[in-house]
Amino acid sequence: MEKQFIKEQEKLLSRIQLENQVDIGKLHFIAGVDLAYWKEKDVEYAVCCIVVIDYITKEIVERQCYRGRIDVPYIPGCLAFREIELVLKTVDLLEHEIELYVFDGNGYLHPRHMGLATHAGILLDKPSIGIAKSYFKVDNVDYIEPSKEASAYQDIVIDHEVYGRVVRTQKDVKPVFLSVGNKIDIDTAMKVIFDLVTKESHIPIPTRYADIMTHEMRKKYQVG
Hints:
alpha+beta; 8 strands
């Protein structure tokens, strides 16, 4: 299974578009995507939640979720194959035309540049960003801690290539790990993320709201 997944990732690799196709001045609807897991007896389930915000007002305009059984085992570097089906089914429920997806997880910051944000961005043919709360180490390369000031960052460089950025969204808070998904460059991605951070959270509001929703829905489904 792992070899098959890696072959599929290698095929998708040629379809990554790193040239920026996002005009921040024209952005309207942005979707935050997150998933949560649980087990019932020996069966694993997950729910994907997508929260759409108006980029101008920062207000929530839509929330959708889809739950399903997870039959793909966890394989390091192949997480997207566990989640992509639920993501695509949740996207199908959306009523708004999404211009940018923000995923709780990685994109280009991946051994084969194929984290969920990239994998899904390619299949959706949409600009996408990965923003992770923890560091996924590639080729045993550690990141350089940015200064404690807001907006500080350090590029994550592996084999002379920028895989992502470690970013301090607010002063004296834990950094987050930013990587492009598809159809956006890292400088534009960082500008968007800083536009979406509020005083209440050091992660962008689309994925923050999606994360909150996953906890709500998991509790609902587990009780049900």
